[in-house]
Each structure stands twice: as C-alpha cells, then as structure tokens.
Amino acid sequence: MSGHQSAQSAPRGSFFGGGIGVIWFDDFICTGHEESLLDCSHSGVKVHDCNHGEDASAVCSVSCPTLRSPNHGRLSTTDTDPGVSVRVVCDDGYTFDETTGDPSTVCRLTGSWSSTLGGCKEEVCPPYSQNISRNLLVSVEQGGGTAIGTVLRFSCSGNYHIHGEYTDTCVSPGVWSGPFPYCVPGENVICPPYSQNVSANVRVSVVTGRGTTLGTVLAFTCSGDNRIRGDGVISCLSSGVWNGTVPDCVSCSTLSVSPPLRANTTNVTEGTVVGFTCDSGYRLTGHGHLDCETSGHWSAGIPTCVKVTCPGLTTPANGRLSTGSTSAGTTVFVDCDQGYMFDPNTGHNITLCRSDGTWNATLGSCTSVSCVALPPPRNGKLSSSDTRPGTTVHVDCDDGYVFDPTTGGISVVCRVGGSWNSSLGGCKQAKCPELSKPAHGSLSTPTTTAGTKVSTECDDGYTFDSSTGDIAVTCRSNQTWGSTLGGCKEG
After folding, report:
1. Less CB within 10 Å around the terminal CB: N or C of the chain?
2. Segment 171-225, tens digit of pLDDT
3. Which domains, and CATH codes, for the chain?
C-alpha cells in the first residue's frame, strides 16, 4: 500500500479514523515525492483487498532512510521521523559547499527526504592576485596559498609608499580581514605642520626625513623632571596624516618621605608609580602605591607607618614570661617555677610576634614535676609511692626472698627533671649453700630454699654422730643455715 512498510496491524470493524496513527486507504497511489498524503491520488473508498467483508484500515509506521554524515562535518540530528529537519554542520575550517546539494532537508510523511543534502569544503579566501594594484608587492608571511590563517605582507616598489595596512589575514569563513592597500608616489604626500601644537616644555627632533613629508619621524622629549604625556614618536603616513598627536609634558610635586616610611623612587614625572614600604616592626597605613596622574597630581595622599604590636600574653600559672614586650620581632618563652616543668601538651614554650601583629604560636603552661609511678616488684614491695623530685624509693622483699642486684638498683631517686636516676631491681627466692652428703648417710632433701629443714639420715650399721653437729638444720631467710649438719658413725 502506497509503497510503505508492511502494516503493523489490520483492525476489524473500524471506521475511517479509527485505530492509532495514520489511516491508509485501499488503492492509494503515491510517487514518493509528495509533500503530504493529500497530494497522493486514490480511487475513493472501495472494498478492501483483505476480504474481511467490510472497510479495513491499517496502522503503519513511517521513517525516512538514514542519512550519511558529510566528510569534514556532521548532521544536526540522526532522527528520521516524519517532519524532522536535518541540516549540515561543517567542522572548523570548513564551510558548506552549495554545489553539492542543499544545506538542510525535511523527512516527509511519505518516508522520503525533501532534498539531497550537500557536503563541506575547506574554507579558503579569494585569490589575492586579482586585488593587487600596480607597484604593490606581496609576500606570504605565514601559511600558504589562500588557506585560513594565511598572512600576506605588502610593500611598494620604487619611490612608492603603502596607503593602507601593511598586512592582511585570511579569516573564517574565507574572507580577507581588510581591503588590500595600494601604492602612492612619495613626493605627493605631505603631513600638516606640527610646530603649532608644541608646548614650551616639549623638545622635538627629526629622526628621519625632512619637514613634513612622507616617512618623516619626529621624537619628543621633556625638559627637567617633566614627563611625556602622549606619543613620544610620530611618523608621517602615506595617507598624509601623523600616526599620533604631539604630546605635552607634566610632572607631580616632590614627595616628602622619611623613615620608617620608604619609597622605591623619587621620580615625580607623569605616569610614575611610587611604591611605599615600612621598616621592620612597622605597618603601612594608607595607599601602598601612588600614581603621578596626567593632571600633574598624585592619586592619593602619602601613607604613614605605625608600630606593629601583638596582643598581650597571659603569664602562666607556676611560671613567668621571659619578657613583657609585644613589639614585632620580639621572642617570648615560658620559664617554669622550681618543682614545675613545661607541659608540651598545652602549647608551645616559645612564640614570636610577627610583622602582621600576630603571634606565630600559642604558649603553653607549667605543670607540677613528678616521676612516673613505679610498679611494685614481684615478691616484694616499695618503700614509698611518692613520685615528687628528691624522693628515694627502695625495694623491700617478702620473707623467703632477697633483692636481686642483677635486675637493677635496690633504690632510686626522683630527679628534678621528673625522671628516676636508675632502674629499680626486683626480688628472687632466698637459697642457702648446698650441703655436702654425709659419709655413710644421706640428706633428707636436696632443697636449699629459705625455710627448708634438712636432716641427716645414716645408712644401716651407722648411727648419727652428735659430736659432729646437729642432726637437722634450717635454711634462714638471710641465706645461711641455722647450724652445722652432723655426720654418721659406725655402730
């Protein structure tokens, strides 16, 4: 039907206009170039070809063929629905080529595009040779040919001079930035007299040329401390005018500056910018720079310097400050009283008053000096739990234990700085010397720890000899036996 895609559905029992979307009739004849379906011909409402016994309609989907993106360009949209307008967008440095087609096209209801899209071509300027006048010489200063960005430089032959710009540039979308110049004879160009515009303080000298003819260059200077206001050098152009105006001379009043204020120059001529600074410990108040304006007046008043001070500091408890000065550059540190030390967790022990009137650090405080608490030794105790400077603490071992000198000192002292003078030792179990086994007998136990009782046991046929010592001895806490252990005799 009408050359379109196959019908999506064929509803039964619908009147014309029923269904969804466009309704197509039997025997519709379209060529594909119509702007609207109303332009297509048909033979009226007839019996449909589907033989369902009543008028039929079909719901169809329509879209145009996908368009190809042009070289050096892109499409404004990839949509292909009816009614969509698509145009060619060329890349930078390229422009639409009208000889290749239309710049835009529309998707018609018949599923065809209204026209053929064109392409893009490189942007170029017209050939410059057709615009060159007699005696005008041209050279390519940058780029090449007539591409975008090409810069042409012009000059004249013989005694001719340029009238117009010396250069021209090819710019987008392919046009020269200005009209080409032309050449005029040098002897025909004369600029107006300049002497009538020169003031008393202005000195003029001819750098090149003569009088007011083409190419004459004038230089201007000022007398004394005056400064040029305007162009210092002007030239007579081929157009018969000076490329600038005759300047005049101006100056500002002398600045009175004394320490602690400093100025970077004493120049008072027009255009001078004077910068001010203050000596260390002072702050500038007012404008830091003054301009000598064209009117001969300074842009503002002379600034002043004021002494920089920092806020007062609070004296720490149990301490004092090294100085009460708060001037810029002053260093202050904390001194703690005897028996106290600086606590680094509370701040810094030194601070500096900066040139901007602020302290570079916050001061801390003093805290009471004490040594670290000592842990009690195993099998013993400490003589004191005091940790103040000057305190002596020693180890007291429990019964049956004695101090072990290999583990540290038996006593330590808390120093003024808050540290113990040595490591505290510990306790070990007390032991007596080993006993010798008696002849013809044995010991009741080999143990020699404090409190242990050891007795002599004689072999069969032998009895204890009381004349040689005691039958039993005990190991005392001082690691000595309570008496001498006796031996055995025959009998």
Report:
1. C
2. 888 888 888 888 877 666 778 887 766 777 788 888 887 778 777 888 988 877 6
3. 1-61 (no CATH), 73-122 (2.10.70.10), 128-188 (2.10.70.10), 195-250 (2.10.70.10), 261-307 (2.10.70.10), 319-368 (2.10.70.10), 380-429 (2.10.70.10), 441-490 (2.10.70.10)
